[in-house]
Amino acid sequence: MSSFEEAETEETVTCLHLTFYHPCQEHKMMFRCLSFCKREQVRADEMATFGRDSNVCRYNLMDTRVSRVQFSLQFYRKLNSSEFCFEIKNMSKKTKLLVDQTELGYLNKIDLPWKCIICFGDYQILAETQEGESVDYFETYLHLSQVPILQERCVPSLQPIPEKGISSPLFPSQGKSPIEIDENES
Asked: pLDDT tens-digit profile of 85-135?
């Protein structure tokens, strides 16, 4: 038998892609302790913790407004399933954590959607899960964004915005409700 035939079957690894954004990142360098564009293995039985305390947190955010432990991610397999998921828990007593439209208070936790935006303070993190099979570990892959992540999901204003150069006297009906007129009226 060749070494190729004897080699163990390669299994895929669940990877959590996290894209970070903060409006002051260029000046305050709060992400300087994170390793971007590099896959990092995390044992399945460990929690991935984010915060400013380097003795407790695996991922450090260098900002005094961030809690010692801001939030944690726990890797797990759903009961009677081969599907792997992440659970996110807010560990901050002072700051609420928003996961898409769900607000988490202190010690609240939910399943992390496959693709979602995590927000606290001015921080925005896009989380995307790439499925895998490994039961021993998962990987994280961190990215840095120069533009706000929420910018893509902004809801357009319901109020019409006039173009420059158009004055309101030309449109006297602006700001008034429409008037219904019967076809037969002259």
From this structure: 999 999 999 999 999 999 999 999 999 999 999 999 999 999 999 999 999
Three-class HEC string of the chain:
CCHHHHCCCCCCCCEEEEEEECCCHHHHCCCCCCCECCEEEEECCCEEEEECCCCCCCEECCCCCCCCCCEEEEEEECCCCCCEEEEEEECCCCCCEEECCEEECCCCEEECCCEEEEEECCEEEEEEEECCCCCCEEEEEEEECCCCCHHHHCCCCCCCCCCCCCCHHHCCCCCCCCCCCCCCCC
pTM: 0.75
Residue in the block written with tokens 């895998």: 132
Over the stretch 138-156, which tens digit does the pLDDT of each residue have?
999 999 999 999 875 544 4
Pairwise CA distance, residues 126 & 145, whole Å: 10
pLDDT at 81: 84
- The per-residue pLDDT for range 35-54, each reduced to its tens digit, is 999 999 999 999 999 999 99
Structural domains in the chain, sorted by start: 15-152 (2.60.200.20)
Model pLDDT, residue 183: 60
